[in-house]
Design goal:
Number of domains: 2
Low-confidence stretches: none
Mean pLDDT: 83
Distance between the termini: 71 Å
CATH superfamily of the largest domain: Intergrase catalytic core
CATH class of the largest domain: Mainly Alpha
Strand order of the largest sheet: 1-2
Number of helices: 15
Structural class: mainly alpha
Number of strands: 2
Radius of gyration: 23 Å
CATH topology of the largest domain: hpI Integrase, Chain A
Strand content: under 5%
Order of helices and strands: HHHHHHHHEEHHHHHHH
């Protein structure tokens, strides 16, 4: 990669606190563009326009992501004095409809937890760990990356909260329900303290190599559990459980701003995607909670 793109990535990390996964995605997109048209700090507008042909076979969402990365780079290049023009207007602008996350019904959640609880009844460390993992995914709405990287010190002894480091290094306090606290206590007793390698790890969910459980392994464990529970494993993922946490809270009348805090969203527009609850529930909410709901129409 060119020195300019390296400097841009360094700025994202230092000034914006971009997470490692975000930086890796930007690096891939910028490297691909440079492979096609050369140094982005010097590429002419015509070459930038030609990226539309390079990306013709990609999904609109992929094109939009790549174009966004380049727009941000070109803005940085102008600020640094490397470019006197802004060729961003030559980039493709696909029209997107933001897809709704997969839904998981209450009965599917019940089936998933029933299977996990039955398997954890015998205090098998792997089963107890899996139960604790899904309790935190659905009970606290953690991201997969936040969950697997939790340090042991994130679990307080008395307060029902976890200290979570989210995207961009943002730290937030996440409430932990009674069920999840009980599952964590069992895991700390059965797994972390009962295994030599785990007892010396600083992570709450350590791996055999001394690091933390990987996101890929978490996906695998969750999909295998779904299969054993008689569910479609393709419909289950850590994010689906996080989405179920948010959707089911909203169905129960949770405030959108509170949910934004719980999920660790910087922009409430991101949280609003979780408001696709059934129209009947929205009507019932208005009828029961609006100040005029109890007054007769003739009053």
């Amino acid at each position: 990669m060119s020195a300019a793109t390296d400097a841009f990535l360094a700025m994202l990390a230092a000034e914006r606190g971009a997470a490692a996964n975000t930086l890796a995605a930007y690096r891939r997109d910028l490297a691909g563009a440079e492979a096609a048209i050369g140094d982005l700090a010097a590429a002419p507008r015509g070459a930038v326009a030609g990226l539309a042909r390079e990306w013709a076979a990609l999904a609109p969402s992929s094109v939009a992501r790549k174009a966004s990365a380049l727009r941000q780079f070109f803005g940085f290049a102008i600020d640094e004095g490397w470019r006197g023009d802004d060729p961003s207007g030559a980039l493709p602008q696909p029209r997107l409809r933001r897809p709704l996350p997969k839904m998981l019904a209450h009965e599917d959640i019940a089936a998933l937890f029933a299977r996990a609880e039955a398997e954890a009844a015998g205090d098998d460390p792997a089963a107890v760990r899996l139960l604790a993992l899904i309790e935190l995914l659905y009970g606290s709405g953690l991201r997969a990356s936040e969950l697997v990287a939790l340090p042991r010190q994130a679990v307080p002894r008395d307060a029902p909260f976890l200290t979570v480091t989210g995207k961009g290094g943002q730290v937030r306090m996440v409430p932990v329900g009674a069920r999840a606290r009980a599952a964590l206590a069992r895991w700390l007793a059965v797994g972390v303290k009962g295994t030599a390698s785990a007892s010396t790890s600083r992570f709450l969910f350590p791996s055999a190599r001394g690091q933390h459980l990987s996101r890929v392994r978490l996906f695998q464990l969750l999909k295998a559990l779904a299969l054993r529970a008689g569910l479609d494993p393709g419909a289950i993922s850590p994010h689906v459980l996080r989405h179920a946490f948010a959707t089911h809270l909203l169905e129960g009348g949770a405030d959108l701003r509170v949910l934004q805090t719980l999920l660790g969203h910087v922009d409430i527009a991101t949280t609003q995607i979780y408001t696709h609850v059934e129209p009947a529930r929205l009507v019932a909410l208005v009828n029961s909670r609006h100040p005029l709901a109890t007054r007769a129409a003739s009053d």
